[in-house]
Amino acid sequence: MKNNTADKIVWAKKDLLGLEYLSREEIEVILYTAQSFKEVTTRQIKKVPALRGKTVVNLFYEPSTRTRASFELAAKRLSADVINIEVEASSVKKGETLIDTGRNIEALKIDIIVVRHNCSGAPNILARSVKSSVVNAGDGWHEHPTQALLDMFTLKSKLGHIEGLRVSIIGDIAHSRVARSNIWGMTKLVAEVTVCAPPMLIPEGIEKMGVKVTSDLDEALKNTDAINVLRMQFERDTQKAFPTKLEYFKQYGITDQRLKKCKKDIVVMHPGPINRGIEMSSDVADGANSVILEQVTNGIAVRMAVLYLVAHAKREIVA
Amino acid sequence: MGLKEKSKILNKEGIEKALERIAHEIIEKLKSIEDVAIVGIKNRGAYLGERLADKVKSITSTSPPVGALDITLYRDDLTQISEQPIVHATEIDFDIDGKIIILVDDVLFTGRTIRCALDALIDFGRPAQIQLAVLVDRGHRELPIRADYVGKNVPTSLKEVVEARLEETDGRDEVVICEKVE
After folding, report:
1. What is the predicted pLDDT for the residue at A5?
2. Contact A7 B86 (CB under 8 A)
3. Considering only CA atoms, which of A193, A189, A228 is closest in space to residue A207?
4. Residues on chain B touching A25 (C-beta within 8 angstroms)
């Protein structure tokens, strides 16, 4: 129960922009704090007053149901007030810039801006322009830090630790912010990360991030402790990389037969929504090794931890 | 600013005796301990809660359920304090509805911690009663809160700090008064 790392560190960051910018200790503080919030989510009264009087805005430039709902629930369970701004309904359509939108939100005395944007780096620009805290809920192909944090939290709950684990990330690595955040986070916690994808979906230079790279699924599955299976984003431009969905499933789909050759207690993760019969078969998605729904539950605890930490970050006092 | 140790008000034996006396008082006051549960306030109160439960058990040979409460999320000074406190998990794995809860803490001072603990506890259910046991009451209440069981009453000045140290957290059992020095 006692966590020495978490006892010493004080969280000082006003924003959570990506796992690239965090130290191992900071990631561990988030995971430790999330463990405490997990307990809150199991109570009959799933609400604590830690963010009472604070306001959180969900500023979403890209459609999202689950991430937005998860952040909204997290904020509400901390007793914060929440408003949702979606791009179609806002003045962005009328030509307002991101920075102007941010400043207007700040003028409304909002404490935390949770932002999802289709451009990589948009949350960083926003964070520099406003005093409110900014939490990245996914930006372009860059990062989706809270998804990776909940993946690591789930993995740690299942296997007890992250250090030394072999984790394979399988699927569209090139277009995946989830993959990028996972790689930053897991390598900082000293897991051995392998990425596996069809050659066209492996970005050049990815091995510089400290991962092994392969296009052979059997190699990625061999002796691995956990797999994180990414969604094939057919709505994005992936047709060129792969001719048909069926072809992808044959070569890269996770099936029961393939799982039988793996470690018996291999942990199967997926950030959702699943394309059944493309990335994995239904018997795997619903099978004993799958933690996909636990990831969803843990997502709330992790996001509560992040909102709590950035809201109460020890700030520099400017005279 | 540092702290200078002035005097020791309880040693290992003193703490032991105080807890034993509190255990006897609880049993005497409540007649039946069937519905009693003990909840300690983290960190040190949680260990004292466990010790108190052991004492109750050795007298009555029934062990009351024991839990530990983390009150960080209920603090009224979250926006004022300079260091961000780490949030620890609350561990209450029994139903508190209808129970007589003995809330345990090390030092009773302003009463604000107890106020938080009452709020936190009530989010878990509706106990029949909540009573308060503390190892040391040093006075200077800022809220209308009092203890039902006190190990030792110690008059102090606001310049002083009362530190309870326990084997589990500090490697030794003692309560000392320190003075703030510039």
Report:
1. 46
2. yes
3. A193
4. none
Predicted confidence (pLDDT) per residue in A213-270, tens digit: 999 999 999 999 999 999 987 766 656 667 788 889 999 999 999 999 999 999 999 9
Which of A31, A28, A111 lies closest to A75 in space, CA to CA?
A111
Cβ–Cβ below 8 Å for B123 and A313: no
Can you give the pLDDT of all 182 residues of chain B as single tens digits?
Answer: 688 999 999 999 999 999 999 999 999 999 889 999 999 999 999 999 999 999 999 999 999 999 999 999 998 877 777 667 788 889 999 999 999 999 999 999 999 999 999 999 999 999 999 999 999 999 999 999 999 999 999 999 999 999 999 999 999 999 999 998 87
Nearest to B2 by CA among B170, B171, B161: B161
Torsion of CA B110, B114, B120, B124, to 10 degrees: -170
Question: Which amino acid is it at A159?
Answer: L
Q: Is residue B166 part of a domain?
A: no
Instruction: Confirm or reject contact between A43 and chain B (CB < 8 A).
Output: yes
Residue A311: closest C-alpha in chain B: B79
Chain A: closest CA distance from residue B126 (Å): 11
Chain A residues touching residue B87 (CB < 8 angstroms):
33, 36-37, 305, 308
Domain presence at residue B136: yes
- What Rg do the C-alpha atoms of chain B give, in angstroms? 16
Q: Answer whether A59's CB lies under 8 Å from A31's CB.
A: no
Helices (H), A97-143: 98-107, 122-129
In a domain, B107, yes or no: yes
Q: Are B132 and B146 in contact (CB under 8 A)?
A: yes
pLDDT per residue as tens digits for the range A143-182:
999 999 999 999 999 999 999 999 999 999 999 999 999 9
Write down the ipTM of this complex. Answer: 0.77
Total domains, chain B: 1
Does the pLDDT value for residue A91 go beyond 70? no
- Tokens 């034996």 label which residue? B13
Q: Which domains does chain A have, with CATH numbers?
A: 4-144+297-311 (3.40.50.1370), 145-296 (3.40.50.1370)
Say if A41 is an interface residue toward chain B (CB within 8 Å): no
Domain assignment present for B180? no
Q: Are B109 and B162 in contact (CB under 8 A)?
A: yes
Residues of chain B found within 8 Å of residue A26, distances taken between Cβ atoms: none
CA dihedral defined by A30, A33, A38, A43, rounded to 10 degrees? Answer: -150
Q: Which of these ranges, A65-69, A315-319, B94-98, B140-144, has the smallest mean pLDDT?
A: A315-319
Q: Can you give the residue range of the structural domain that contains B49?
A: 17-77+85-158
